[in-house]
Target: E-selectin
Amino acid sequence: MKWTLILIFGSCLAETTLCWTYHYSNETMNWTQAREWCQKYFTDMVVIQNQAENDYLVSILPQKRSSPYFWIGITRNHMNESWIWIGNNSTWIGNNSWAPNEPNNVHATEFCVEIYTNTGENRGKWNDEKCSKSKYAACFKTQCNESSCERGRCQEAINSTTCLCERGFKGDRCQTPVECLPLSEPYNGYHSCSRGNQTFNTTCRLKCHPGFFINGSSFVTCEDTGDWSGPRLTCAAVECPPLPQTYNGSHNCSRGNQTFKTTCHFKCDPGFFVIGSPAVTCGETRVWSGPRPTCTSYKQALLALAGCGALSTFCCICFCCIKHRQRKKLSQERLPEEGSPPCDTQP
Ligand SMILES: *[C@@H]1O[C@H](CO)[C@@H](O)[C@H](O)[C@H]1NC(C)=O
Ligand SMILES: *[C@@H]1O[C@H](CO)[C@@H](O)[C@H](O)[C@H]1NC(C)=O
Ligand SMILES: *[C@@H]1O[C@H](CO)[C@@H](O)[C@H](O)[C@H]1NC(C)=O
Ligand SMILES: *[C@@H]1O[C@H](CO)[C@@H](O)[C@H](O)[C@H]1NC(C)=O
Ligand SMILES: *[C@@H]1O[C@H](CO)[C@@H](O)[C@H](O)[C@H]1NC(C)=O
Ligand SMILES: *[C@@H]1O[C@H](CO)[C@@H](O)[C@H](O)[C@H]1NC(C)=O
Ligand SMILES: *[C@@H]1O[C@H](CO)[C@@H](O)[C@H](O)[C@H]1NC(C)=O
Ligand SMILES: *[C@@H]1O[C@H](CO)[C@@H](O)[C@H](O)[C@H]1NC(C)=O
Ligand SMILES: *[C@@H]1O[C@H](CO)[C@@H](O)[C@H](O)[C@H]1NC(C)=O
Ligand SMILES: *[C@@H]1O[C@H](CO)[C@@H](O)[C@H](O)[C@H]1NC(C)=O
Ligand SMILES: *[C@@H]1O[C@H](CO)[C@@H](O)[C@H](O)[C@H]1NC(C)=O
Ligand SMILES: *[C@@H]1O[C@H](CO)[C@@H](O)[C@H](O)[C@H]1NC(C)=O
Model:
């Protein structure tokens, strides 16, 4: 996809054909033209990053008797500025790169650099020159291109290319996303992932079954390390409010806790009996299925019954009396009658 040229010196693999190559012109031209020529037919003018590359380049270039001068890709804009390589703005200059007494900036305008390829002691040394002078062009051709590395940068040595992968990708062309271990299915829930596979950048969301809730994080992402971003996703059962102790009775639940689907059975102490439903179940909305029953003793029940009976007898009697008095009043108004009702307290 994207590629950045990184020039490094690497050891040659004799059998590999993936490598940059050096090329040169057989005609002279000024520095600007030379660079354009290199860019037209190859990748660019040569960039040297260390002494070994310098030596290798000199071994490739022809040993010309007359005019043994080749332009190389290092320049500066002003005499007080530093020398900069084209391509990546590197400023590498070796201790022995310059020929003796160079750079001398003789014309105050010597802002380009040539390399000597003669056979003398200055072979492989550099000299600053006016950019308008005519020299041969020394070029390189990269083997890296847009399709060399899918998700990485192409790094090139003299005789080899390698892909430096973006995080989350691997493979010789950085074509394979890092895979995470498959997520184990959560208890009482399920995952919903952003992709069919669980590779770098896949996000999986947790959904819980009814009666369960997300305990902790609700999603995880597959990271570039091949690990999921957080602890295992878990669904926990909802819990109903605790059941208080029953007076004169006890309850026994199907589990040690009072979570979803737990059923609690109520039992009353001897001499007491249950009033209400004897069992409640915890529902998915954290609510018990019904009210808690109560325990009542038989004695209380009898007393209550008796009390109720007495009360109702009393009420009945009063009702009768009132009714009777009303009737008596009515009849007295019309025709007087003999006898008195048993509950007539009037003298
Ligand atoms: C690059 O490879 C060529 C041929 O495959 C070989 O002649 C040359 O020596 C190698 N260069 C280096 C610097 O190893
Ligand atoms: C010089 O290079 C050109 C192409 O750049 C080529 O056509 C020509 O034959 C070369 N001349 C010599 C003498 O090698
Ligand atoms: C370069 O620097 C020297 C002193 O360090 C100064 O005298 C000179 O004017 C500078 N030249 C330019 C072109 O800036
Ligand atoms: C080199 O430096 C110039 C000017 O500072 C900048 O515009 C350019 O982007 C740099 N190139 C690289 C490859 O860093
Ligand atoms: C240019 O590339 C060389 C080799 O990869 C590297 O050592 C140097 O730091 C780079 N320079 C810049 C300015 O990026
Ligand atoms: C270059 O010269 C400096 C200073 O003289 C020295 O410290 C350094 O080790 C030299 N580097 C090499 C590669 O010889
Ligand atoms: C190089 O040559 C071209 C064409 O002759 C010219 O237009 C350009 O100004 C020259 N550049 C330099 C730096 O001399
Ligand atoms: C790109 O480079 C690769 C090797 O890195 C090579 O196999 C492929 O043919 C090149 N593709 C193009 C379009 O040049
Ligand atoms: C995983 O799925 C994504 C998107 O569907 C796809 O681009 C990628 O190639 C797949 N990876 C693997 C290893 O199957
Ligand atoms: C990973 O996902 C984030 C957010 O969705 C996105 O911005 C990024 O481009 C993705 N990275 C890759 C390599 O797919
Ligand atoms: C939620 O998870 C924490 C630790 O992961 C655990 O200690 C706690 O008991 C869990 N809560 C429930 C209700 O399961
Ligand atoms: C409740 O009890 C059940 C069964 O014993 C157990 O699986 C579950 O983890 C418990 N839940 C909590 C929150 O303690």
User: Anything to note?
Assistant: The first helix runs from residue 31 to 41. The chain has three helices and 22 strands.
